[in-house]
Amino acid sequence: xxxxxxxxxxxxxxxxxxxxxxxxxxxxxxxxxxxxxxxxxxxxxxxxxxxxxxxxxxxxxxxxxxxxxxxxxxxxxxxxxxxxxxxxxxxxxxxxxxxxxxxxxxxxxxxxxxxxxxxxxxxxxxxxxxxxxxxxxxxxxxxxxxxxxxxxxxxxxxxxxxxxxxxxxxxxxxxxxxxxxxxxxxxxxxxxxxxxxxxxxxxxxxxxxxxxxxxxxxxxxxxxxxxxxxxxxxxxxxxxxxxxxxxxxxxxxxxxxxxxxxxxxxxxxxxxxxxxxxxxxxxxxxxxxxxxxxxxxxxxxxxxxxxxxxxxxxxxxxxxxxxxxxxxxxxxxxxxxxxxxxxxxxxxxxxxxxxxxxxxxxxxxx
Length: 366
What we know:
By secondary structure, the protein is of the alpha/beta class. Helices cover 46% and strands 18% of the residues. Helix 9 links the parallel strand 9 (249-254) and strand 10.
């Protein structure tokens, strides 16, 4: 009897030890650090289908999903009063790495202070470290650099001496697009002895193509603008429609919008889009996940992606080559190389001491 009891005790010890070892390798162990838990990635947007900024980010999310990541994109509209509750719902569902543009910064910061084990990544903005908690990170794009290059092209392609840059809503990041574009036009004027002017307008929405179309038609009819750059999300479709009707040129943004429209139900709009200023949102969000997993120091800071980091650029496709003269393409390529090499410093909205100084700069090009 004692021998049987001894054997049973020994077996119990083996089972207990096995259970302990199994628990140490599992996912419910208090010793597992938050960073080592399985990632659940949320991407927050007002809505997909803009063939621009939001869709560019979604391309990076699709790449993550294709690799087996647990990722979901949440389309939450433009009602700021609902943002916090909707992001809170994502946290309740277990999402622990949340990407969102500057539209969600206030909600991110408030929730980051409450949920220390959730990581929040704001992109398309610039913040100082004292504005961030330890579980927040920011991705900034040097959109002024990419916009400079298409500004050069716009000035070189204009036959009327009047070009436009029209935006959805006005904010510091959008102002940076405008600054770079104006800088490109002014530098083209200085190099070629021309006097191309820039007109600007905002439709006050990322999803109002009808208003954007009317703005562009007015600029063409009343101001003779003949090259239009859109930085307006879904509203940009109205700019392309106006250009198609008036036989003027358009410049897309964030993704290859010529190709987007070739593959769409409205392929005729593709024939007015000379190029697009690329903001590689999808690539940088995908790359951020990889850097995070490697344990790189990305938190409580802003990481910048410009020409040097291949974060911005422009589309150099067959349509671009067929319609933009070689000399102008070479000028853009040289400016691209000079900026990457540090020989060319593109002006940024964030260089201005005040909005009054920024407005004076715009006035110099009107």
